[in-house]
Amino acid sequence: MFVSRCLDVNSHGHLTIGGCDTVELAQQFGTPLYLLDEGEVRRACASYRESIDRYYGGKGLVAYASKALNCKALCRIMQEEGMGLDVVSGGELYTALSVGFPAEKIFFHGNNKTPRELQEALEAGVGQIVVDNLTELELLSELAGGQGRTAEILLRIKPGVDAHTHQFIRTGQIDSKFGFALETGEAMQAVERALALPGVRLKGVHCHIGSQVFDREPFEAAAEIMVQFLADIHDRWGCQLEMLNLGGGFGIKYLSDHNPIPYGQYMEGVSRVVKEVCAQRGIATPFIVMEPGRSIVGAAGITLYTVGSVKTIPGIRTYVSVDGGMTDNPRYILYQSEYEALAANRADQPKDTVVTLAGRCCESGDLVGEGMPLQQVRPGDLVAVLSTGAYNYSMASNYNRVPRPALVLVRDGVPRLAIRRESYEDLVRNDL
Ligand SMILES: *Cc1c(COP(=O)(O)O)cnc(C)c1O
């Protein structure tokens, strides 16, 4: 019935998540409110982990891409789940380290890490700095040398697989701000430089082909290209790089007609390809890293809003305005992302209207969605927007000086506050 199995409807007709009544949660914590089912998050981690055990003899690591949602509570959960962690900024790194997340299991990504961020990563002993370009490579070598350290690095490669098109393209995807291109020879030159420079140790290669991808084929194509590259490196320089990081991007269910494959299936296909190519080319199988972000937290989260005004423009549309919008979920205004919504306090009733769910900001484009089926709602009703666990809190802003909502974790009927709601004092804290 729902896009996520952590959702249900109780005998009061109220939507529940992780066994908690959303109407009670709204009363207790206020709205707008982010809710995340911790059990669902842990199950997603386990299914990726198990797929590496099952299909690849456990020779791998699942690193949660924390830009999807990064906070202390989630970093602790990832540590407990034995996951690695992707960070893309000093702030995400700081959050992870502040709860004692093991630095050796961290991957530091980004196409323009600042010298200070690189310094911080070196000082923390980050296990994998994913180097994006030659400027960064030279800088890192210098910084590490200056500290008497050796940076463990991966190189970010553009494998030439564009998973965003309907029929994914195998070549020609060199127009990206991220990484070294394979087909121009740039990637091999970067390998040569990394092998020659002091202060860095080349541990492996990395790629990330896109996001919200439903097919297995682009991942298998990228895996094949990357293993061929590892074999080319072996043939040319006589060195066997130990790590192959194949990125994330696995699709999730936003709408009822989205049908993501079980997460384990990606690893099934990828490990088969990797083993085959390694055998053909006579190299040892690498340690594989997968980096799911959206598919760990996305479907486990919902956002609760309170309805303010309901404005019907005859013959045009009905605007249902809620107490949040682009400040807590900018994905519609950024990408016209589609979501499902329902009236959380009358979730047992049929969705017999179609509405435009509008945010509260002074911006006509501030919508949560258009053409959304919804129950008849009145001012004071609660609306839940589903599958908002990823790239919502982490993309939230204070536009119009709207404080960010709280984030509550729910598990087996018990709520736990993970991030407090911002106050007006928080908004002016840095104002002079
Ligand atoms: C964003 C990102 C991911 C995660 O992507 P999802 O679509 O959230 O799974 C993984 N790796 C890298 C390098 C990324 O930039």
Bound molecules: pyridoxal-5'-phosphate
Main sheet characteristics: 9 strands, mixed
- Quote the beta fraction: 15-25%
Structural class: alpha/beta
The helix count comes to: 12
Can you tell me the overall shape? globular
Give the low-pLDDT segments: none
Mean pLDDT: 95
Rg estimate, integer Å = 23 Å
In total, the number of strands is 21
Helix content: 25-40%
Distance between the termini: 51 Å
Oligomeric state of shown chains = single chain
Binding site for pyridoxal 5'-phosphate: 249, 291-294, 391
Family: Belongs to the Orn/Lys/Arg decarboxylase class-II family. LysA subfamily.
Protein name: Diaminopimelate decarboxylase
Keywords: Amino-acid biosynthesis, Decarboxylase, Lyase, Lysine biosynthesis, Pyridoxal phosphate
Spell out the key features of this protein.
432 residues; alpha/beta; 9-stranded mixed β-sheet; 8-stranded parallel barrel; 12 helices; 21 strands; 31% helix; globular; binds pyridoxal-5'-phosphate; lyase; diaminopimelate decarboxylase activity; Diaminopimelate decarboxylase; EC 4.1.1.20
How does this model look, in words?
The chain is of the alpha/beta class. It is 31% helix and 25% strand. Strands 4, 14, 15, 16, 17, 18, 19, 20 and 21 form a nine-stranded mixed β-sheet that branches. An eight-stranded parallel barrel has the order 5-6-7-8-9-11-12-13, surrounded by seven helices. It has a three-stranded antiparallel β-sheet with strand order 1-2-3. The protein is globular. The model has no long low-confidence stretch (mean pLDDT 95). Bound molecules: pyridoxal-5'-phosphate (PLP). Residues 65, 67-68, 86, 109, 208, 211, 247-250, 291-295 line the site of pyridoxal-5'-phosphate (PLP).
